[in-house]
Amino acid sequence: MSDSVASTGIYLYCLARIDCLATVQTLAAQKGLSVDTDYGVAALPSAGVVAVISEVLLSEFSEANLQDLSWLGERALRHEAVVARIMAVSPVLPVKFGTLYHSRESLKLFMDQHHGAIDQALDKLRDKAEWSVKGYLVGEQARNIIATEDPDIQARRAAMSPSPGVRYLQQKQLDSKIDAALEGALARISHDLGEALALRAEGAAALRLHASAVTGRAERMVFNSGYLLGPDTIDDFRSALAEQQEAYTPIGLSLELRGPWPPYNFCPELGSPPA
């Protein structure tokens, strides 16, 4: 294999239906989506499934570059922009940023091996998108509600010693009890909230919680789930979310709906690209 061939690879954005071919041609002509070297977007059709791809230099995806936030951020935005454009005209199976194949032939082999699962998933995801519901808690408000409604906590507060030293130790014990009660309440709320919303969606996926350093919010994130919604379910889902928001506002929980996005959390596990 020559050095020029060996140094290039195939970057995969998503898998889609042939409905997207005209959009791929438009993207290929839009240099604004390119980064550094002008790698045009192209299509690799196979039995009714289209792989939306670019030819790239494999050396660009070095460990050093993947740790460089400025390099990574620009290319991740390009990835999302391409997938979003394809999703506007076709169901998509988006793949994570940085999915590479050594050649068109290796990608074609992978598509052939998983054709049944890909075909079925694209049918299932037609006209559907992923939305997320994130829940943020005002901690002190929630603790006050918990403490007020728990008879044992109220009894302990009423029986606290007038002695400063003893009272300090009792307060520490009481704080631990309130914290434990709050965590138990949050577990129940997350379960009940998740079930209520899942009933109005075509799919649900629990997502990991993020710290304030990631969310940029002072409130604690206590709920994070993805939901698969179509045009026939989105309005009903919004109504259910509004009902849940009304129920949990008194405890200091605010719910935030975001989307629509490509259905990353509702794609089948197809395995890794072949070496």
Describe the structure.
The protein is α+β, with helices and mostly antiparallel strands and 275 residues long. The chain has two domains: 3-126, Alpha-Beta Plaits (2-Layer Sandwich); 129-264, no CATH class. Helices cover 47% and strands 23% of the residues. It has helices at 3-6, 21-29, 63-66, 69-87, 104-113, 115-125, 139-149, 151-158, 164-198, 212-215, 234-248; strands at 8-17, 41-46, 49-57, 92-94, 100-101, 129-137, 203-206, 220-229, 253-261. Strands 1, 2, 3, 4 and 5 form a five-stranded antiparallel β-sheet that branches. Strands 7-8-6-9 form a four-stranded antiparallel β-sheet. Helix 7 (139-149) packs across helix 9. It starts with a helix and ends in a 14-residue tail after the last strand. Mean pLDDT is 88; it is low at 1-5 and 34-38.
Map the helices and strands.
Layout: H1 3-6, E1 8-17, H2 21-29, E2 41-46, E3 49-57, H3 63-66, H4 69-87, E4 92-94, E5 100-101, H5 104-113, H6 115-125, E6 129-137, H7 139-149, H8 151-158, H9 164-198, E7 203-206, H10 212-215, E8 220-229, H11 234-248, E9 253-261
Antiparallel strand pairs: 1-3, 1-4, 1-5, 2-3, 6-8, 6-9, 7-8
Computed Rg: 25 Å
As a percent range, the share of helical residues equals: 40-55%
The overall pLDDT average reads: 88
What percentage of amino acids are in beta strands?
A: 15-25%
Structural class: alpha+beta
Please, how many helices? 11
Q: Report the uncertain regions.
A: 1-5, 34-38
Number of domains: 2
In N-to-C order, the SSE pattern is HEHEEHHEEHHEHHHEHEHE
The backbone outline, from C-alpha atoms, is elongated
Measure the end-to-end span.
16 Å
Q: Report on the biggest sheet.
A: 5 strands, antiparallel
